[in-house]
Amino acid sequence: MLAADDGVAPNIIAPVRMSSTFGDLLAARVAERESQIVLGLDPDPGALWPEVASGAGSTAAAVVAHCRAVIDAAGPACVAVKPQLACFERLGAAGWEALEAVFAHARERGLLTIADGKRGDIAVSAHAYAQALFEGLRADLATVNPLLGRDAIEPFVAGARAADAGVLLLVRTSNPGAADIEDLELADGGRLWERLARITDELGADGVGEAGLSDVGAVLGATEPHHIPRARELMPHAILLLPGVGAQGGRVEDVAAAFAAARAGGLVTASRSIVGAYRTDGGDPAHSARAEAERLRSTAWALAPA
User: Fold this and answer.
1) Rounded CA gap, 80 and 102, in Å?
2) Which residues pair with 143 in a beta bridge?
3) Which residues on neighbouring strands pair with residue 169, listed in sequence order?
4) Is pLDDT above 70 for 15?
5) Is residue 118 annotated as part of the catalytic site, yes or no?
């Protein structure tokens, strides 16, 4: 996938095609791009690519220029981008406009979009969040906090299905503090995260497509890969988003069990390890980012069953 020369021309392909379910759409896109890598975008205004962001005129404009450059460089080795909404929202109204511009640029480059906001609320608020994510941003996937219960998740699932999109529930996250809550023993046996996994599977049962993947998936930290086989047992059809590779210490080589359902059953997300690769190898930011994304892509692709 990495070009023979040092250029960073974007790999522009046809827009995402409509499919019967989001799982089928994702499976087709993974096959087309031969990638399960998600490019995380967590722009820090103080740590943008200097040559790209200089002279942008405003912080929001610099963030957009940076993110576009990162997408153009690393996007050809990826299947999706995952902007962290908080990194844009802190810039106020200009930040939301920047976020919309980044989503549009990703779509133009043939990439799926994941809105990483970890939203969670009930009733009217949950419906409003879902509208903002799937109608406003037109996200293909969105992360959702399930700890308020099934009735708080259902509006997001309904909103996603109306938009031919999907949701990713936080099941066992990558941060060290996840053990404080998500690993707690329940009175009727098992861990809290295992109950969340069962809810994920139940809510996604009506959204399983021909590829065997559901439109309700889970966030499962790559920093604790020993949970992945059990998670796959509990969620045989779920798309597993696997954050924590790179800067947080997770390794692609340890998440092979996520691909047991299908090549598209696991999505490996990396942010700082791709965007900041030039700080390690001393190279050009764009070329270093693309090389690291390609390394991750080829490693993950070799792990997954054909």
Assistant:
1) 12
2) 168
3) 144, 218
4) no
5) yes
Whole-number pLDDT of residue 246: 67
Question: Are 228 and 194 within 8 A, CB to CB?
Answer: no
Q: Model-level pTM greater than 0.85?
A: yes
For residues 158, 211, 19, 149, the Cα torsion angle rounded to the nearest 10 degrees is 10
Helices 150-162 and 123-131: angle between axes, nearest 10 degrees:
30
Burial of 93 (0-12, 13-18, 19+ CB in 10 A): exposed
Please, what is the average pLDDT of the chain? 91
User: What pLDDT score was predicted for residue 10?
Assistant: 43
Q: Where are the alpha helices (DSSP H) in the chain?
A: 22-33, 50-53, 59-74, 85-89, 93-108, 123-131, 150-162, 178-181, 192-203, 228-234, 272-275, 277-281, 285-303
Using CA atoms, how far apart are residues 170 and 285, in angstroms rounded to an integer? 32
Catalytic residue among 118, 138, 191, 230: 118
Query: pLDDT tens across 108-118, in order?
Result: 999 999 999 99
Encoding tokens for residue 290?
């693309």
d(CA 283, CA 292): 11
> Could you tell me which of 268, 256, 270, 240 has the C-alpha nearest to residue 304?
256
- In this predicted structure, what is the pLDDT of residue 13? 42
% helix, strand, coil for the chain, step of 5: 50, 15, 35
Which of 25-29, 180-184, 259-263 is the least confident region?
259-263
